[in-house]
Amino acid sequence: MDISAVLSEFKGLSYRAWVLMIGLFVSVIVSYLGHQGLALWSSVLGLLLITDWRHFKSFSWVLGVMALSLLWILCRTNPYDFTHPKGDDHTGWLKILCESLFYVPVFLAATQLSSAQAFKLISLVKWACLGLGLVLAYETASNAALFRAICWQFHSDIRPDLAMVKVSVSSYYLMLLYWPLMLVAQLMSQKRILLFLSAILIIVPIIMSANAVTLALVISALTFWVAKLWPKTWIGIEKIIAAKIGLIVLLWPLLIAWLHKGGIMDKYATHLPDSWAERVHIWDTTSVKMFDKFIMGQGFDFSRVWSDIPLHPHNMSFQAVLELGFVGLILLAGFWVCVILRTGQATTIFHFVRHSDESQLMNIDIKIDTKPYFLATAVCYFTFAFISFGMWQEWFLAMAALSTCVCLVASKALDEAILSQYQL
Known about the structure:
The chain is mainly α. It has helices at 3-8, 15-33, 37-48, 60-75, 92-108, 115-142, 145-153, 160-187, 191-207, 211-229, 237-261, 264-269, 274-289, 302-305, 316-344, 371-387, 394-412, 414-422; strands at 348-356, 361-369. It has one domain (14-422). A two-stranded antiparallel ribbon has the order 1-2. Strand 1 and strand 2 form a beta hairpin.
Protein backbone atom coordinates (compact mmCIF):
# COMPACT_ATOMS: atom_id res chain seq x y z
CA MET A 1 0.00 0.00 0.00
CA ASP A 2 1.30 3.45 -0.94
CA ILE A 3 1.00 5.50 2.26
CA SER A 4 1.57 8.75 0.40
CA ALA A 5 -1.36 7.96 -1.88
CA VAL A 6 -3.59 7.27 1.11
CA LEU A 7 -2.53 10.48 2.84
CA SER A 8 -3.11 12.48 -0.32
CA GLU A 9 -6.77 11.47 -0.15
CA PHE A 10 -7.10 13.50 3.04
CA LYS A 11 -5.38 16.62 1.80
CA GLY A 12 -7.50 19.72 1.51
CA LEU A 13 -9.90 18.76 4.29
CA SER A 14 -11.32 21.64 6.29
CA TYR A 15 -10.68 22.16 9.99
CA ARG A 16 -14.23 20.96 10.70
CA ALA A 17 -13.72 17.79 8.66
CA TRP A 18 -10.44 16.97 10.41
CA VAL A 19 -12.00 17.38 13.86
CA LEU A 20 -14.93 15.14 12.97
CA MET A 21 -12.74 12.59 11.22
CA ILE A 22 -10.41 12.18 14.18
CA GLY A 23 -13.28 12.51 16.63
CA LEU A 24 -15.53 9.81 15.15
CA PHE A 25 -12.65 7.39 14.54
CA VAL A 26 -11.39 7.73 18.11
CA SER A 27 -14.94 7.47 19.50
CA VAL A 28 -15.19 3.91 18.16
CA ILE A 29 -11.97 3.01 20.00
CA VAL A 30 -13.10 4.75 23.19
CA SER A 31 -16.42 2.87 23.14
CA TYR A 32 -14.40 -0.32 23.53
CA LEU A 33 -11.62 0.76 25.89
CA GLY A 34 -13.86 2.71 28.25
CA HIS A 35 -17.29 3.82 27.14
CA GLN A 36 -17.59 6.43 29.88
CA GLY A 37 -14.78 8.31 28.16
CA LEU A 38 -17.20 9.15 25.35
CA ALA A 39 -18.57 11.97 27.51
CA LEU A 40 -15.22 13.71 27.83
CA TRP A 41 -14.26 13.02 24.23
CA SER A 42 -17.54 14.39 22.87
CA SER A 43 -17.14 17.48 25.06
CA VAL A 44 -13.67 18.10 23.61
CA LEU A 45 -15.06 17.77 20.07
CA GLY A 46 -17.93 20.12 20.91
CA LEU A 47 -15.51 22.69 22.31
CA LEU A 48 -13.45 22.53 19.12
CA LEU A 49 -16.62 22.93 17.03
CA ILE A 50 -18.45 25.37 19.30
CA THR A 51 -18.86 27.97 16.54
CA ASP A 52 -21.10 25.55 14.61
CA TRP A 53 -23.91 26.42 17.01
CA ARG A 54 -24.75 29.11 14.46
CA HIS A 55 -26.15 26.38 12.19
CA PHE A 56 -28.88 25.43 14.66
CA LYS A 57 -31.82 26.36 12.41
CA SER A 58 -32.00 22.94 10.75
CA PHE A 59 -32.78 21.47 14.19
CA SER A 60 -34.75 24.41 15.59
CA TRP A 61 -37.77 22.43 16.80
CA VAL A 62 -35.70 19.71 18.47
CA LEU A 63 -33.39 22.23 20.13
CA GLY A 64 -36.34 24.38 21.14
CA VAL A 65 -37.97 21.53 23.07
CA MET A 66 -34.56 20.68 24.53
CA ALA A 67 -34.20 24.27 25.75
CA LEU A 68 -37.61 24.13 27.43
CA SER A 69 -36.63 20.84 29.08
CA LEU A 70 -33.41 22.37 30.40
CA LEU A 71 -35.37 25.27 31.88
CA TRP A 72 -37.70 22.83 33.61
CA ILE A 73 -34.71 20.85 34.90
CA LEU A 74 -33.29 24.03 36.44
CA CYS A 75 -36.68 24.77 38.00
CA ARG A 76 -36.74 21.31 39.58
CA THR A 77 -33.12 21.41 40.79
CA ASN A 78 -31.62 22.51 44.05
CA PRO A 79 -27.93 23.13 43.21
CA TYR A 80 -27.08 23.41 46.90
CA ASP A 81 -28.42 19.99 47.85
CA PHE A 82 -25.54 17.95 49.27
CA THR A 83 -27.63 15.04 50.57
CA HIS A 84 -26.91 12.38 47.94
CA PRO A 85 -26.40 9.10 49.83
CA LYS A 86 -25.44 7.20 46.66
CA GLY A 87 -22.40 9.26 45.84
CA ASP A 88 -20.58 12.53 46.14
CA ASP A 89 -21.52 13.94 42.76
CA HIS A 90 -23.87 16.91 43.28
CA THR A 91 -23.38 18.64 39.94
CA GLY A 92 -25.78 16.75 37.68
CA TRP A 93 -27.67 19.92 36.78
CA LEU A 94 -24.44 21.65 35.74
CA LYS A 95 -23.26 18.64 33.73
CA ILE A 96 -26.51 18.43 31.79
CA LEU A 97 -26.14 22.09 30.82
CA CYS A 98 -22.53 21.60 29.71
CA GLU A 99 -23.44 18.50 27.75
CA SER A 100 -26.14 20.42 25.91
CA LEU A 101 -23.64 23.16 25.12
CA PHE A 102 -20.87 20.87 23.85
CA TYR A 103 -22.65 17.83 22.40
CA VAL A 104 -24.95 19.69 20.00
CA PRO A 105 -22.17 21.27 17.85
CA VAL A 106 -20.78 17.77 17.20
CA PHE A 107 -23.70 16.94 14.91
CA LEU A 108 -24.43 20.48 13.75
CA ALA A 109 -20.91 20.54 12.26
CA ALA A 110 -21.76 17.54 10.09
CA THR A 111 -24.42 19.57 8.27
CA GLN A 112 -21.69 21.83 6.88
CA LEU A 113 -19.47 19.15 5.33
CA SER A 114 -19.09 18.83 1.58
CA SER A 115 -20.07 15.52 0.00
CA ALA A 116 -16.42 14.64 -0.72
CA GLN A 117 -15.40 15.32 2.89
CA ALA A 118 -18.35 13.36 4.25
CA PHE A 119 -17.56 10.38 2.02
CA LYS A 120 -13.97 10.20 3.30
CA LEU A 121 -15.22 10.53 6.86
CA ILE A 122 -17.88 7.81 6.58
CA SER A 123 -15.36 5.51 4.90
CA LEU A 124 -13.01 5.91 7.86
CA VAL A 125 -15.83 5.28 10.33
CA LYS A 126 -16.78 2.18 8.35
CA TRP A 127 -13.27 0.71 8.70
CA ALA A 128 -13.18 1.62 12.39
CA CYS A 129 -16.48 -0.22 12.94
CA LEU A 130 -15.25 -3.24 10.99
CA GLY A 131 -12.21 -3.30 13.26
CA LEU A 132 -14.44 -3.04 16.32
CA GLY A 133 -16.52 -5.90 14.96
CA LEU A 134 -13.44 -8.11 14.66
CA VAL A 135 -12.37 -7.24 18.20
CA LEU A 136 -15.85 -8.03 19.54
CA ALA A 137 -15.81 -11.37 17.71
CA TYR A 138 -12.46 -12.24 19.32
CA GLU A 139 -13.59 -11.07 22.77
CA THR A 140 -16.73 -13.15 22.48
CA ALA A 141 -14.72 -16.27 21.67
CA SER A 142 -11.99 -15.62 24.29
CA ASN A 143 -14.12 -14.44 27.23
CA ALA A 144 -12.83 -10.84 26.85
CA ALA A 145 -9.18 -11.94 27.01
CA LEU A 146 -7.89 -8.87 25.16
CA PHE A 147 -9.77 -6.41 27.38
CA ARG A 148 -8.57 -8.21 30.52
CA ALA A 149 -5.00 -8.13 29.22
CA ILE A 150 -5.25 -4.37 28.64
CA CYS A 151 -6.63 -3.86 32.16
CA TRP A 152 -3.82 -5.98 33.60
CA GLN A 153 -1.24 -3.80 31.82
CA PHE A 154 -2.65 -0.85 33.74
CA HIS A 155 -2.53 -2.78 37.03
CA SER A 156 -6.29 -3.21 37.16
CA ASP A 157 -7.37 -6.83 37.40
CA ILE A 158 -10.95 -7.52 36.35
CA ARG A 159 -13.18 -10.56 36.53
CA PRO A 160 -14.01 -12.22 33.17
CA ASP A 161 -17.77 -11.78 33.62
CA LEU A 162 -17.40 -8.08 34.43
CA ALA A 163 -15.00 -7.65 31.51
CA MET A 164 -17.60 -9.15 29.17
CA VAL A 165 -20.20 -6.68 30.46
CA LYS A 166 -17.90 -3.70 29.85
CA VAL A 167 -16.90 -4.91 26.39
CA SER A 168 -20.53 -5.48 25.45
CA VAL A 169 -21.30 -1.75 25.84
CA SER A 170 -19.36 -1.06 22.64
CA SER A 171 -21.91 -3.22 20.80
CA TYR A 172 -24.54 -0.61 21.73
CA TYR A 173 -22.51 2.05 19.94
CA LEU A 174 -21.96 -0.26 16.98
CA MET A 175 -25.71 -0.83 16.82
CA LEU A 176 -26.33 2.93 16.69
CA LEU A 177 -23.88 3.30 13.79
CA TYR A 178 -25.14 0.23 11.96
CA TRP A 179 -27.95 1.75 9.88
CA PRO A 180 -26.13 4.84 8.52
CA LEU A 181 -23.22 2.57 7.58
CA MET A 182 -25.67 0.21 5.90
CA LEU A 183 -27.01 3.11 3.83
CA VAL A 184 -23.63 3.87 2.29
CA ALA A 185 -22.50 0.23 2.06
CA GLN A 186 -25.70 -0.83 0.30
CA LEU A 187 -25.47 2.05 -2.16
CA MET A 188 -21.92 0.94 -3.03
CA SER A 189 -22.90 -2.75 -3.21
CA GLN A 190 -20.54 -3.70 -0.37
CA LYS A 191 -22.44 -6.86 0.54
CA ARG A 192 -19.61 -8.38 2.56
CA ILE A 193 -19.62 -5.41 4.92
CA LEU A 194 -23.40 -5.69 5.26
CA LEU A 195 -23.19 -9.38 6.10
CA PHE A 196 -20.25 -9.04 8.50
CA LEU A 197 -21.71 -6.24 10.62
CA SER A 198 -25.11 -7.92 10.62
CA ALA A 199 -23.57 -11.20 11.80
CA ILE A 200 -21.61 -9.43 14.56
CA LEU A 201 -24.72 -7.66 15.86
CA ILE A 202 -26.72 -10.90 15.80
CA ILE A 203 -24.18 -13.23 17.40
CA VAL A 204 -22.11 -11.10 19.80
CA PRO A 205 -24.96 -9.58 21.88
CA ILE A 206 -26.55 -13.01 22.36
CA ILE A 207 -23.34 -14.55 23.67
CA MET A 208 -22.53 -11.49 25.80
CA SER A 209 -26.12 -11.34 27.11
CA ALA A 210 -26.55 -7.78 25.81
CA ASN A 211 -30.23 -8.44 25.24
CA ALA A 212 -31.05 -4.76 24.71
CA VAL A 213 -28.88 -4.76 21.56
CA THR A 214 -30.66 -7.83 20.23
CA LEU A 215 -34.04 -6.26 20.95
CA ALA A 216 -32.96 -2.98 19.34
CA LEU A 217 -31.77 -4.84 16.23
CA VAL A 218 -35.11 -6.61 15.87
CA ILE A 219 -37.23 -3.49 16.48
CA SER A 220 -35.09 -1.28 14.26
CA ALA A 221 -35.15 -3.88 11.47
CA LEU A 222 -38.95 -3.97 11.65
CA THR A 223 -39.00 -0.17 11.58
CA PHE A 224 -36.66 -0.15 8.59
CA TRP A 225 -38.75 -2.53 6.50
CA VAL A 226 -42.07 -0.92 7.43
CA ALA A 227 -40.67 2.51 6.47
CA LYS A 228 -39.15 1.11 3.27
CA LEU A 229 -42.35 -0.60 2.14
CA TRP A 230 -44.70 2.12 3.35
CA PRO A 231 -46.83 3.43 0.44
CA LYS A 232 -45.70 6.93 -0.57
CA THR A 233 -49.29 8.03 -1.12
CA TRP A 234 -50.23 7.43 2.55
CA ILE A 235 -49.53 9.67 5.50
CA GLY A 236 -45.78 9.83 6.21
CA ILE A 237 -44.53 6.85 8.23
CA GLU A 238 -42.49 9.21 10.43
CA LYS A 239 -45.76 10.80 11.62
CA ILE A 240 -47.15 7.39 12.57
CA ILE A 241 -43.96 6.43 14.43
CA ALA A 242 -43.78 9.84 16.13
CA ALA A 243 -47.36 9.50 17.39
CA LYS A 244 -46.78 5.96 18.67
CA ILE A 245 -43.54 6.85 20.45
CA GLY A 246 -45.14 9.92 22.00
CA LEU A 247 -48.00 7.80 23.33
CA ILE A 248 -45.64 5.10 24.60
CA VAL A 249 -43.59 7.69 26.51
CA LEU A 250 -46.72 9.21 28.08
CA LEU A 251 -48.69 6.05 28.84
CA TRP A 252 -46.00 3.56 29.88
CA PRO A 253 -45.79 4.67 33.56
CA LEU A 254 -49.60 4.67 33.83
CA LEU A 255 -49.80 1.21 32.24
CA ILE A 256 -47.27 -0.24 34.69
CA ALA A 257 -49.11 1.43 37.59
CA TRP A 258 -52.36 -0.19 36.44
CA LEU A 259 -50.68 -3.59 36.12
CA HIS A 260 -49.18 -3.15 39.60
CA LYS A 261 -52.57 -2.31 41.08
CA GLY A 262 -54.02 -5.48 39.59
CA GLY A 263 -51.15 -7.59 40.94
CA ILE A 264 -50.15 -8.65 37.43
CA MET A 265 -46.56 -7.40 37.72
CA ASP A 266 -45.82 -9.53 40.79
CA LYS A 267 -47.53 -12.56 39.27
CA TYR A 268 -45.46 -12.75 36.09
CA ALA A 269 -42.14 -11.20 37.17
CA THR A 270 -40.96 -14.49 38.69
CA HIS A 271 -41.12 -16.16 35.27
CA LEU A 272 -38.74 -13.66 33.63
CA PRO A 273 -34.93 -13.88 33.33
CA ASP A 274 -33.11 -12.27 36.26
CA SER A 275 -32.19 -9.04 34.47
CA TRP A 276 -35.74 -8.50 33.24
CA ALA A 277 -37.22 -9.45 36.60
CA GLU A 278 -35.05 -6.77 38.20
CA ARG A 279 -36.24 -4.21 35.64
CA VAL A 280 -39.86 -5.09 36.31
CA HIS A 281 -39.28 -4.77 40.06
CA ILE A 282 -37.73 -1.31 39.59
CA TRP A 283 -40.61 -0.18 37.36
CA ASP A 284 -43.11 -1.62 39.83
CA THR A 285 -41.53 0.28 42.72
CA THR A 286 -41.29 3.52 40.73
CA SER A 287 -44.91 3.30 39.59
CA VAL A 288 -45.98 3.73 43.22
CA LYS A 289 -43.51 6.48 44.14
CA MET A 290 -44.26 8.65 41.08
CA PHE A 291 -47.73 9.53 42.38
CA ASP A 292 -46.28 11.27 45.45
CA LYS A 293 -45.53 14.33 43.31
CA PHE A 294 -47.04 13.41 39.99
CA ILE A 295 -47.29 16.89 38.46
CA MET A 296 -44.01 18.50 39.54
CA GLY A 297 -41.86 15.45 40.28
CA GLN A 298 -39.45 14.75 43.12
CA GLY A 299 -36.73 16.92 41.60
CA PHE A 300 -33.95 16.49 39.09
CA ASP A 301 -31.58 13.59 39.80
CA PHE A 302 -33.83 12.25 42.58
CA SER A 303 -33.18 8.73 41.32
CA ARG A 304 -29.65 8.92 42.72
CA VAL A 305 -31.03 9.95 46.11
CA TRP A 306 -33.76 7.36 46.36
CA SER A 307 -32.37 4.24 47.96
CA ASP A 308 -35.15 1.90 46.75
CA ILE A 309 -33.69 1.64 43.23
CA PRO A 310 -30.13 1.37 41.83
CA LEU A 311 -29.15 4.77 40.35
CA HIS A 312 -32.05 5.14 37.89
CA PRO A 313 -35.33 3.41 36.89
CA HIS A 314 -33.88 1.90 33.67
CA ASN A 315 -36.66 3.58 31.70
CA MET A 316 -36.72 7.18 30.53
CA SER A 317 -40.48 7.60 30.98
CA PHE A 318 -40.29 6.54 34.61
CA GLN A 319 -37.21 8.67 35.23
CA ALA A 320 -38.90 11.71 33.68
CA VAL A 321 -42.13 11.40 35.66
CA LEU A 322 -40.34 10.50 38.90
CA GLU A 323 -37.89 13.41 38.80
CA LEU A 324 -39.65 16.03 36.66
CA GLY A 325 -43.28 15.06 37.03
CA PHE A 326 -45.96 14.88 34.36
CA VAL A 327 -44.69 18.20 33.02
CA GLY A 328 -41.30 16.59 32.37
CA LEU A 329 -43.00 13.56 30.83
CA ILE A 330 -44.85 15.79 28.35
CA LEU A 331 -41.59 17.54 27.46
CA LEU A 332 -39.89 14.16 26.91
CA ALA A 333 -42.71 12.98 24.65
CA GLY A 334 -42.58 16.27 22.75
CA PHE A 335 -38.84 15.95 22.32
CA TRP A 336 -39.12 12.48 20.83
CA VAL A 337 -41.95 13.52 18.52
CA CYS A 338 -39.76 16.36 17.21
CA VAL A 339 -36.78 14.02 16.80
CA ILE A 340 -38.76 11.47 14.79
CA LEU A 341 -40.40 14.13 12.61
CA ARG A 342 -36.99 15.73 11.99
CA THR A 343 -35.60 12.31 11.09
CA GLY A 344 -38.43 11.88 8.62
CA GLN A 345 -37.29 14.98 6.75
CA ALA A 346 -34.36 12.90 5.51
CA THR A 347 -36.69 11.52 2.89
CA THR A 348 -36.40 10.57 -0.76
CA ILE A 349 -33.47 12.28 -2.44
CA PHE A 350 -33.07 12.75 -6.16
CA HIS A 351 -29.59 13.07 -7.57
CA PHE A 352 -29.12 14.41 -11.08
CA VAL A 353 -25.64 13.44 -12.18
CA ARG A 354 -24.14 14.56 -15.49
CA HIS A 355 -21.38 12.54 -17.10
CA SER A 356 -19.53 13.91 -20.07
CA ASP A 357 -16.63 12.81 -22.26
CA GLU A 358 -15.58 13.40 -25.83
CA SER A 359 -18.35 11.31 -27.29
CA GLN A 360 -21.42 11.64 -25.09
CA LEU A 361 -23.35 13.69 -22.57
CA MET A 362 -25.95 12.01 -20.39
CA ASN A 363 -28.10 12.62 -17.31
CA ILE A 364 -28.68 9.96 -14.66
CA ASP A 365 -31.43 10.15 -12.05
CA ILE A 366 -30.77 8.15 -8.89
CA LYS A 367 -33.42 7.81 -6.22
CA ILE A 368 -32.37 7.13 -2.63
CA ASP A 369 -34.78 6.79 0.28
CA THR A 370 -32.76 7.54 3.42
CA LYS A 371 -35.73 7.78 5.76
CA PRO A 372 -35.87 4.05 6.75
CA TYR A 373 -32.20 4.02 7.78
CA PHE A 374 -32.40 7.07 10.02
CA LEU A 375 -35.75 6.15 11.55
CA ALA A 376 -34.25 2.75 12.42
CA THR A 377 -31.31 4.51 14.14
CA ALA A 378 -33.63 6.73 16.17
CA VAL A 379 -35.68 3.70 17.23
CA CYS A 380 -32.46 1.94 18.32
CA TYR A 381 -31.61 4.76 20.72
CA PHE A 382 -35.20 4.92 21.93
CA THR A 383 -35.07 1.20 22.74
CA PHE A 384 -31.86 1.58 24.75
CA ALA A 385 -33.26 4.55 26.66
CA PHE A 386 -36.48 2.70 27.32
CA ILE A 387 -35.09 -0.49 28.87
CA SER A 388 -31.44 -0.03 29.79
CA PHE A 389 -29.85 3.31 30.65
CA GLY A 390 -30.54 6.45 32.63
CA MET A 391 -31.51 9.60 30.76
CA TRP A 392 -28.73 11.71 32.26
CA GLN A 393 -25.80 9.30 31.81
CA GLU A 394 -23.16 11.44 30.12
CA TRP A 395 -21.66 8.77 27.88
CA PHE A 396 -25.13 7.64 26.74
CA LEU A 397 -26.06 11.19 25.71
CA ALA A 398 -22.68 11.41 23.96
CA MET A 399 -23.62 8.31 21.95
CA ALA A 400 -26.77 10.13 20.84
CA ALA A 401 -24.77 13.12 19.58
CA LEU A 402 -22.15 10.97 17.85
CA SER A 403 -24.64 8.65 16.16
CA THR A 404 -26.66 11.66 14.96
CA CYS A 405 -23.43 13.06 13.54
CA VAL A 406 -22.73 9.80 11.67
CA CYS A 407 -26.27 9.79 10.23
CA LEU A 408 -25.79 13.34 8.92
CA VAL A 409 -22.35 12.47 7.54
CA ALA A 410 -23.79 9.43 5.75
CA SER A 411 -26.52 11.59 4.23
CA LYS A 412 -23.97 14.16 3.08
CA ALA A 413 -21.74 11.43 1.60
CA LEU A 414 -24.34 10.08 -0.81
CA ASP A 415 -23.41 12.31 -3.74
CA GLU A 416 -19.78 11.24 -3.61
CA ALA A 417 -20.75 7.61 -3.03
CA ILE A 418 -22.80 7.68 -6.23
CA LEU A 419 -19.93 9.21 -8.17
CA SER A 420 -17.61 6.51 -6.85
CA GLN A 421 -20.01 3.63 -7.49
CA TYR A 422 -21.00 4.63 -11.00
CA GLN A 423 -17.56 6.05 -11.88
CA LEU A 424 -19.08 9.31 -13.03
